[in-house]
């Protein structure tokens, strides 16, 4: 017999035969636990795997949570910027963003009583102002309490408002500034902008850290372009972004579609226009704001002496000081702002109060001189609002 075949037979004869219905593993490694115990252990292992998976997910979530929170904050900030209309604003050529180390965050003050719904309409008694009554080509006089246009002269024609624009400038700024004692460092670009455009200046110097409160008074009383531009950049970060805010406020006040602003100073531009009626509504909103009313009503504001200004700076509202001499019978002007550009002549917006407490708003444009604007306001108050007897006088130095 073949030797190999003999060895195979001896090997197979020594093996244990496994029944067809039984597993080999059951024979070689028999279980020492019951089926129920094995099932329980399998259940425990599955539960343990699930606990480990949940723990892994929680650990991953804790790691991602700061990133998720940061993403939420970024989204909220972007939404706020979009709503305010300043997302993507670019500074005009030559005007850098704020370099003041003290500017910090801008917060919104609690809003003053809403003037968005204020309006006035003509009625059957509204007078079309005769050409001989005033020099100004455009004018409107409004009884604020009644919401009635008492007299008007091309009051709904959009023209350049010149430096009356600064009323809207301080109104927008007042609604976004919280710390009037904070400072802003005036830049060379700001003073150059005022000089190149032939604007009136409050007298602040490059490198000077000016309190925000002084910027408000510098914008209105001497009609300082340096103060207005500094205030705009402090609030919005750039001139253009602030102008966007001005136009948003104009829409919120319900101004006409023709009203639009392209700069915060009042420099002549085809895109910087509004009607006398629109400017009257802006002045009404400003007089409803505590800070704006205080600034617009101040006759003289003194800035203390400093190293840069050894004698200090005196800011004066020329219009209010001069019109007092031309109104009698207890009629007083509560606030005012003038303006001048060649294309719009001398302009003025004022808020007056009669002895019986009735409040009026008067806005004029295209007068031959600042004195003519004063006489026109005095004449309109006298004839239609009980402002006493208006008196004339000689021409004086023009003011903004």
Indicate the mean pLDDT. Answer: 84
Can you identify the CATH class of the largest domain? Answer: Alpha Beta
| Fraction of residues in β-strands | 15-25%
H and E string: HHHEEEHEHEHHHHHEEHEEEH
Count structural domains: 2
Overall structural class, as computed from helix and strand content, comes to alpha+beta
Give the full name of the CATH homologous superfamily of the largest domain: DD-peptidase/beta-lactamase superfamily
Major sheet details: 6 strands, mixed
Low-pLDDT segments, ≥5 res: 86-116, 390-399
Number of helices: 12
| Rg for CA atoms | 39 Å
Q: What is the general shape?
A: elongated
Strand order of the largest sheet: 1-3-2-10-9-8
Report the count of strand segments. Answer: 10
User: Can you name the CATH architecture of the largest domain?
Assistant: 3-Layer(aba) Sandwich
Verbal overview:
This protein is of the alpha+beta class. It folds into two domains: 51-84; 121-384, DD-peptidase/beta-lactamase superfamily (Beta-lactamase, 3-Layer(aba) Sandwich). It is 40% helix and 16% strand. The chain contains twelve helices and ten strands. Strands 1-3-2-10-9-8 form a six-stranded mixed sheet, with helices on both faces. A hairpin with a 5-residue loop joins strand 9 and strand 10 (359-367). The protein is elongated and about 120 Å long. It starts with a helix and ends in a 16-residue tail after the last helix.
